[in-house]
Amino acid sequence: MPTKLTETVKNPVTLAIDTGGSGIKMMLLDSTGKPLSDRVRLPTPQPATTDLVLAEFEKIKTQLSPFDRVSVGFPGVIKHGTTFTAANLDPSWIGFPLQETLEKRWKKPVRVLNDAAVQGYASVQGKGVELILTLGTGLGSALFTTGRLCPGLELGHHVWRKRTKTYEDYLGRRGLEKYGPDKWNVLIGDAIDSTSKLFNWDTLYLGGGNTKKITLKIPENVKLVSNEDGLLGGVALWRDEAVF
Questions:
Q1: Equal fold, 14-118 vs 120-230
Q2: What is the CATH number of domain 120-230?
Q3: Residue ranges of the domains in the chain?
Q4: 98-136 per-position pLDDT tens digit
Q5: Count of CB atoms within 10 A of residue 111's CB?
Q6: How much of the chain exceeds pLDDT 90, in percent?
Q7: Whole-model pTM?
Q8: CA separation for the pair 111, 68 (Å, rounded)
Q9: Spatial contact of 208 and 140, defined as CB atoms under 8 Å apart
Q10: Highest CATH level, class, for 14-118
């Protein structure tokens, strides 16, 4: 179980961390989820091993003011604070107790969740079925029903179009580089259509750094969201007990 605040903090400050395949970002948030600091970013080390990434965490943390708790978005399957997959990082993350490790190091309560889910918390309106896809190094995904997260979705690694190819192969950075922006935009349109039939979502949110390369005309119920939402959703991790 996640550590609880050891003392009553009326308006806790949250250190939000967004761990990506190309960049690590941090920001301080107030109890309502509003920024208390600028976003600080460092490139993700290569190879992105546990030791090297945690060292970057320490570097960024020292640039920010004190905080009361920590929310981490991580690109993989998370169960009870442990990272079970990390397709775009290093194999050393498989089975790594990230939440427990940070709690021991920083002496603060920590919660860890899939990065697309964290971004979804900052984006969803809590109405019907809402899907978020994050377009970055890989492809993140999260599904919400009436504002509640359905944990565990990893659409990016699901086979799509060809038996040997996944959504991530087409829509992640590899797909963008392989097919070029024009064909990639066609594939984004195809993904909007196929996920609509699969999930019957009411609203689809597209986030991540590569949304700036979307040029196709999107339907009214598809929204582009800020990449910064990967940090701004951090406070919601402390409201939704159901996923921890």
A1: yes
A2: 3.30.420.40
A3: 14-118, 120-230
A4: 999 999 999 999 999 999 999 999 999 999 999 999 999
A5: 24
A6: 90
A7: 0.92
A8: 12
A9: yes
A10: alpha beta
